[in-house]
Amino acid sequence: MSLIGSINTLQTPLLNKLPGLTPNDSPTGPVKLPGIALPSGDVSATQPGGFGSVFENLVSAVDGKQKEAQAVTRDVLLGNTDNLHQSMIAMQEAGVAFQLMVEVRNKVVESYQELMRMPV
Asked: 20 to 30 A from 117, CA-CA: which of 13, 99, 109, 111?
């Protein structure tokens, strides 16, 4: 039996344990995970404003996460709440979002430089 065949035999008993799913069900679109909201609206549609607005939205989202993390951390430090784990999670999310934004920026700059080096 091949590796893929053995995975398929393992998959069916696991799918039978999930309520409302059959082995023939397969995701045809975004998968809804508990506790994680799907983005609203049609994500495949082009946004007005083009490329600049995409980066503007990215920076705004990262800024929002950092402000949220600062607010939660401030509440913990002032003793308004004892949700230290929520503060740590918010800070980690903000840090990861910032790192992702920097990596995207680096890739865009690298791509631009590669295009500029191409002989015309």
From this structure: 99
